[in-house]
User: Fold this.
Amino acid sequence: MQTKRLPVTLFLVITLITLTGAHASAGRAGNTVPPTLDQVGNLFPDAHYRYSVIISPVDYGEEPPSCLDGPARDSQLGIEAGEHYSCTALSGVSMDGPMTGVLGGLHTFIAAVAPPTATLPVTYTWQATGQTGVATTTHELSHIVSFAWFAGVTGTKTITVTAANCGSVVSRTHTITLEMAKIYLPLVTRNWPPLTWHSECVDCPPIIEEITQGSITLDSAGHPHVAYGGVKLYHAWHDGATWQIEVADESPRVGKWASIALDSHEYPHISYYDSDNGDLKYAHWNGSGWISETVDYDGGWNSYIAIDSHDRPHIAYQDAQGLSGTALKYAYWDGSVWQIDTIENLISPSSSRDTTLGLDDDDQPHISYSVSNSGDAPDYLYHAHLDGGDWLTQTVATAGYIGDNALALSSAGDPRIIYDAIDGNDERLGYAWWDGIQWQNETLATSDNSIAALSLALDGSDVPHASYYLNADESMHYAHWDGTWQFETVESGLSLEGEISSLSLDGPGQPHLLYLLENATLRYAHQVGAAWQTENVVQGGDPGRYSSTVLDQAERPHVIYTDQDRMQLRYAAWDDAAWQTQAVDQGDWDYAFYYAGLALDGAGHPHIAYNKNSVFWGNELRYARWDGATWQIQTVLSKNVGSASKAATLVLDSAGRPHIVHGVWNGIAHTYWDGAAWQSATVDAQAESSSSRLSLTIDGAGKLHLAYWDVTNEALKYAYKDGAGWHVQTVDIEGRSPSIALDSASRPHISYCRIPGSYCEELRYARWDGTQWLTSTLEGGGRTGFYTSLVLDSADHPHISYLNADEGYVLKYARWDGAAWQLETVDSNAGSGYYTSLVLDSAGRPRISHYDFHAKELRYVWWGTEPR
Assistant:
């Protein structure tokens, strides 16, 4: 047998495959020897190497398998006989990835090795703080891995990557700082809810404009039911323990001249006036809710309602027709539609201020009214009733003047009327009744007082009971017949609003009275035995004029304002849950208070300066401060001879001492507390009249800055006080309703309106540039710029709130965005823009207090993402 000398590559390959991952010796090495398998193969189990080996010959006794014929090659490892092994080592590794991140987020890191000619494969081993290690072998020069830290603490985390190939091992370290995760939603969701204007009522008592002779009635238990309103219609009733109140009609500006009656189910029916539309309206309770409707689109003054035996309403009322007089009207529901009659067109607007209605047993209406004539012609008191479809009118009485009157029907359906008459200098309270043939008249009483607020009711025995008011004595009275007329004083020392009272009798014939006081208190009086007991049903109000707003350190708003109905200076503060409101001072008439100054001390306690205008005591400059428990009020100055301005404004200096600028009889003055006493100095003796707001501020150096309108000289003025005293400049020749603010350089900026005539026509803005006043017009061409309020933001950009009359007396807002003025409507409700006061919060977002004239309430609006 021939012995052949052959390469044994195939056997070596098999050996290599078999021994992958373990140490193997392959005999004599050639000129290049790769790492042994236990050095490299364990690290790279999937690696492929090129070997060039020489093996000693082996003698075989037979031919090798035919599969060895031809060139020898390792198809898996790529090793061919005769090749020499080579390896390019790694020179380095770089890592790229985020430097910061959030807990829970996925963070991606990329490692790249060098040089580009490095021998592959490369094994990347990743180690990160708080993470399980990751090792991957790849034929790529780079590798990507992602880590997420879902638990643990925030702070710095270390990531290390080690890269190794056949020639070297290299590493790189990277750090990432983690913080708590912030959720980033899609754009629409992220911005929801969007920034927008939000509005709420600060002080919103019910509005009680005028009641009627029919504003009270009694149920079968003798409990009173009352109707009233002005902005909404209200129904109030006593349940035997307390007063219950509900809104019967939410419509705006309804409820004036409300009259109430109960049907056979004791469900209330109310007639009333819609001031917005000039309509007569009717509302009734159907057992589950209130139903309201318009009866007549022309009229509705002084309505009086009665319910017939079929529970159908009948209403007497007036239709004001301007200088041509008034029309006396009657409406009733026939079961399908409203039927409306005009009883008489009255020639005088002052005719028949009162309208009373009664239904007889046949459900036929009876109405009393008066007609006032011009010149020396006498006034007439009439009784009208429906007879066979025709209205019949009778003259009840004549006099030089006939004022209030009231009607009631006897059990036989005969009319009885009480009235006020004046002949010459003699005023009398008259009583008339129909005796079946003619009218009989008698005088109950004569008086030097003015008699008003008449109301009449008959008891089950047809005995008359009457109520009336004596103006000079400011007293409410009650009279009844028991064979002779008996008179009682119900209440003294009260001022009546509208000079109306409403009287109703219970089953035993005891009187129940309702009347409205001048301070918007609806008073109820009833007789218990021989004594009169009085209580308040509700107190109305008209809050919001002359408002001024500041924010405390927690950015909670505080507002000072007036209430003309309650005749009060009032204060409101937000306590993080609700508005808290209270009276600071009580006046004795509607216009007792005007613009007041408000400032907060370091403890957040309010300080207020104001003028109090008393009917009896003249004008006083007052200073009030809250001590944490009560208001401490002192009179700083008495001004019985009048004043150039009814306004007052206030700032506190760095020591917390008050500085007040106000009007005196001969100009504008500055009064301040020096730590021991009040001191005063003249600001401007030439400004003898300033009927607008005084606007005062103080800079960081304690210097005072003032803006005001000098009516006497028709000029907008600016004054400042330094160590030498007060200095006055003219800013513009016309300028009402000023508001002042200082920029970061303590330079003054002023918003105001231009008044070439009798009202504002332009919204204007002026600023001092260090050498001169620069003025600009923001809005013009009509009636606008009333009640301006100015604030500068952190970039010294001005923001202004104001009223635009041409657009419906609405609340508007203007701001400078750094390039142009941006103007927008904040509240589009008609009458919403009165007496604005603007502040900015720490985010530069506006907050505005303002008075809604039609709703008659103090409101507060703010720009933000959501309501409180």
